[in-house]
Automatic annotation (TrEMBL):
Domain Ig-like: 116-192
Signal sequence bounds: 1-24
This protein's name: Ig-like domain-containing protein
GO molecular function: transmembrane signaling receptor activity
InterPro entries hit by this protein: Ig-like_dom, Ig-like_dom_sf, Ig-like_fold, Ig_Fc_receptor, Ig_sub
Protein's organism: Anabas testudineus
An annotated GO cellular component: external side of plasma membrane
Alphabetical UniProt keywords: Disulfide bond, Membrane, Signal, Transmembrane, Transmembrane helix
Tagged with keyword Zinc-finger: no
């Protein structure tokens, strides 16, 4: 029974550790800057929205433009934590973030281009172990066949509609761009890879690793309860046989 008690204590410790992981992951990722559309590059004269998600209290959207820290100009959805620019221009390129008292979000380096091609690359860091898809976009078409580059080195020899990076790791970080023949080349943007998954407070998305750990923990609890039940049943069965075999009973 000592082994059973130890097993039970280990399972309880695992559940407490899992609860702390979920709590820490939520606290780390509940505040972030959301960009809509969710990409780092945008054509000029298009609409882009910025939202500070998860902050409590007075929150401000900030931008660094030519080394100067500013509050961006908004056309609609104008609050201290939300901003929609109905028509962005080249001068709206820069590094955006949200901040409140003692708290800052991730920084997002947005590029506004007057060129004919942009790279569809996520605005938020992608989590290690997940997959990410890059696409070329022109002003006339949502996707195009193109050659994708990482740090100015082509990633393949023939044009493709998209570039899928599987099982993302830190080694996949770098500057990416794409070239569409007879149309043009997109600017280069940095693909950021993080340890945690950013998720919207209104969604049900959770860190995949935490979900896997939860599944393993629940399986451990089930097996532990099964073992304890078998031991309990065996003990009472043996005690019952001893009583039956005792001639003094």
């Amino acid at each position: 029974m000592e082994v059973t008690a130890l097993c039970f204590r280990l399972v309880m410790l695992e559940l407490i550790f899992l609860r702390e992981q979920v709590h820490n992951s939520y606290n780390q990722n509940r505040t972030f800057l959301r960009i809509t559309p969710n990409r780092l590059q945008h054509f000029d004269a298009t609409s882009v929205s910025f939202d500070c998600v998860g902050f409590v209290g007075l929150t401000h959207l900030k931008i660094i433009r030519n080394t100067e820290e500013l509050n961006p100009s908004c056309d609609s959805k104008r609050t201290t934590s939300s901003c929609t620019m109905d028509r962005v221009y080249l001068e709206d390129s820069g590094e955006y973030w949200c901040e409140s008292e003692g708290e800052r979000s991730n920084r997002v380096n947005i590029t506004i281009t007057a060129g004919p091609v942009i790279l569809d690359i996520p605005a938020l860091p992608v989590m290690q172990g997940t997959n990410v898809i890059l696409r070329c976009r022109s002003k006339n078409q949502s996707t195009n066949l193109g050659i994708f580059y990482k740090n100015d080195v082509p990633m393949h020899s023939t044009p493709e509609e998209e570039m899928k990076i599987e099982n993302v790791s830190k080694s996949d970080e770098g500057f990416y761009k794409c070239h569409v023949s007879s149309i043009g080349t997109s600017p280069a943007s940095w693909l950021s890879v993080g340890d945690q998954l950013f998720y919207d407070s209104n969604s049900k998305s959770l860190n995949v690793r935490i979900l896997l750990r939860l599944a393993v923990t629940m399986l451990s609890v089930f097996l532990s309860l099964l073992v304890m039940g078998c031991l309990y049943f065996k003990k009472h069965k043996v005690n019952g046989e001893d009583v039956a075999d005792d001639p003094d009973v």
